[in-house]
Amino acid sequence: xxxxxxxxxxxxxxxxxxxxxxxxxxxxxxxxxxxxxxxxxxxxxxxxxxxxxxxxxxxxxxxxxxxxxxxxxxxxxxxxxxxxxxxxxxxxxxxxxxxxxxxxxxxxxxxxxxxxxxxxxxxxxxxxxxxxxxxxxxxxxxxxxxxxxxxxxxxxxxxxxxxxxxxxxxxxxxxxxxxxxxxxxxxxxxxxxxxxxxxxxxxxxxxxxxxxxxxxxxxxxxxxxxxxxxxxxxxxxxxxxxxxxxxxxxxxxxxxxxxxxxxxxxxxxxxxxxxxxxxxxxxxxxxxxxxxxxxxxxxxxxxxxxxxxxxxxxxxxxxxxxxxxxxxxxxxxxxxxxxxxxxxxxxxxxxxxxxxxxxxxxxxxxxxxxxxxxxxxxxxxxxxxxxxxxxxxxxxxxxxxxxxxxxxxxxxxxxxxxxxxxxxxxxxxxxxxxxxxxxxxxxxxxxxxx
Length: 450
Known about the structure:
Blueprint: H1 20-25, H2 36-67, H3 70-95, H4 100-123, H5 129-154, H6 157-218, H7 237-242, H8 245-280, H9 286-323, H10 325-329, H11 332-344, H12 350-374, H13 381-412, H14 417-446
Helix pairs in contact: 2-5, 2-6, 2-9, 3-5, 3-8, 3-13, 4-5, 4-6, 5-13, 6-9, 6-12, 8-9, 8-12, 8-13, 8-14, 9-12, 11-12, 11-14
């Protein structure tokens, strides 16, 4: 009996109308005919967005650590959650009144205007470290959640599972390039002129978003060209989360993930400050020298994180989604964190913390990040924009708030690096348990075979 021919998605046989771009991208993911251009535009969009964020993140680390220290950084992060209690409902109300491209354009312009203000105030000599830290923490979670909501809205569930790996390459490449750029330019331009560079990149994001929206809205076979011109429903983001078990599990996942990650960031920041004190000492102009030392350290650190993240995104994400699926990929990061913080129980040194955080963050920004956003593919448009914005902003920062409590009580209990690593292992165990529940719920929601 003859063996039947199996035509796989993304192969030339399955899409005879594929152009050169579609065929080229098929090396990395199964791309169908006429999908390549929008995937590249979305990748360019998130490239600019992440490049801007990592330039501003490097500025943020330098300002907050020299003006306040690692403890103040942790406590300031908790304040973002309280601010988001006001910002998330306001964002949802605005989203109910405008279509998706106006939402993206006006929210991005809102943040660009703030960068100009920070530049003027900081250049005048005002200490803006804490305020800028709070602002960056709200900016990055909101605009990135908004971008992925846009991508989820454009693609069907089947398309998203195939094409998010390519879009995520832009995210990883932008994060790497932004960190590298910040590390090279920090000593030349200083923190405040880098803010203006970030504002210019965000202006580019608006233009690319407009191009993607026009292309997809005009396409006859687009998943929902008519809905692109319609505002969202009236239900708020928090309401959507409270009423849906699947969304609640994602919210808890985000809280635990961020507690683990930011506790690790606290350990790294504390050791970096101690190292800058040891290297610089009480030299003349010590504050500026320490600021430059910390800025260069984080520029190099973020560069390694995002180089590895880019390689993981290019070589692993699409293949992992193909073989173990979106929900299976959710287990990778907590298992890696379990081993990493177990290592820190024995080797609580700056070099060890740096290696653990490079591996943890690079996996987070590639495999975990793409899988996390793909979880919203089978949800409603309201959930994509409003619930995802609530989860990726408030619940993300709620993790910061919980982590600030960990730092507060841990510091008063005189915990050392190993002690904080032990606490993180407890949170990683809870994280794995939530992933197991989410795995089952995602399977039910997508009607996947057992």
